[in-house]
């Protein structure tokens, strides 16, 4: 329990506060509309559906205020810089921004469903009251005219109205339909299978948020739900059974009603600028007023492919270099087209114009705040660690006294041998640098090939004792299979009995769940002993 509190306590507290606010808003507004004297006559027409429509609306307003905040990348980068002086737990919350964004979206979807169903019932009951289906009071309330001295309660003003027509011809009804359709498209296109396989679908439909918020702004302008005015004084409990005396006796003046003022809150942030590309699979872009930190990422746009599409890529260069680079693998139509364009360029020619949005902060920025770091990359997920290891190399060359890190464990898991090729050169340079400085133990790296063929097996049988690995050319032999994480964490804890160890992952969710559990399992509650803090990249 102590280890869980160390790693997840603040996150749980934030979620409890968020959920508490949602529950409070729902209960408060439900009771407000269900018990409030101003809504006595409105409740008579609509019953409990009034409160069931308005309470979710309050929760929706709160969560629509929050939904954009976790994805305002500039704001998150600003906060990350502001929290440098704060504890690790506070900064780690910024790395959970997408998880919180999804939770808020789920709450919006749930409250939208409740709100919509309740209002569909409200329209039906408004219509029935207007047609005189219910009691004498309902009919009298529905017949109130909107003249100089009175205001209506029932927004349906004619007796032969089709409810569907009302939904599509009122401001509240039409914007409600538009908002709901936009929300359905946004949520369904955000499913993992669609986002991974058809990123363009996810990207374009997510921009329906503009229509969603535009509709939200105007949704309440129709003021469909109305409440009784305080003037003239009309005692509903006394007058409800005396409808024939309304306006004839002083105690029962004709009641007047009005709609509340619509409310909505928005928050938006954007930033862009442009640079040029000079090579093929590894894109090197010149820095122009561009400051970066290790492990950060940027969004790239290629107008020659699409004016609207922006894709995230982790920078693989070090802050000390005079350019920044990204490595791009084929993973869809956009990347395939970009690689094709670059391959067709004549040697020495300048590439197409590229738009760059960023850089934006990630969990990997904190790697140098730990004495010991475990870096775990899967496939192309090694890219943030390329930046980190390059920066370490520069810091060693410059004998940087601010380097606090004294030990790094690096694990790289790949399914194919060619994935190791571009990164092996960097590891060879680091091996040589560590040897020359007598710091062989500073970097421990292990490479894992999770898929192989018979050719690899036969080669190992024929040449079992080669000095360098047949796959990477490094002195460290490639391991076949997957790491035994219990063994790895036990070894790290044994070699660093009093250290705080930062565990950083850029890889799949399933691996993240495993590492998060191991961090909790092998952390010691005793503050004087080893503790593991889990950090994961999110895009």
UniProtKB/TrEMBL annotation:
Keywords: Heme, Iron, Membrane, Metal-binding, Oxidoreductase, Transmembrane, Transmembrane helix. One of its GO terms (biological process) is superoxide anion generation. PROSITE patterns: FAD_FR. Residues 260-366 form the FAD-binding FR-type domain. Signal peptide: none annotated. CDD domains: NOX_Duox_like_FAD_NADP. It is found in: Membrane. GO terms for molecular function: metal ion binding; superoxide-generating NAD(P)H oxidase activity. Its main location: membrane. It is a multi-pass membrane protein. Coiled coil: none annotated. It catalyses: NADPH + 2 O2 = 2 superoxide + NADP(+) + H(+). The chain crosses the membrane at residues 12-31, 51-72, 100-121, 165-189, 201-221. GO terms for cellular component: NADPH oxidase complex. PANTHER family: NADPH OXIDASE, NADPH OXIDASE 1. This is NADPH oxidase 1. The gene is nox1.
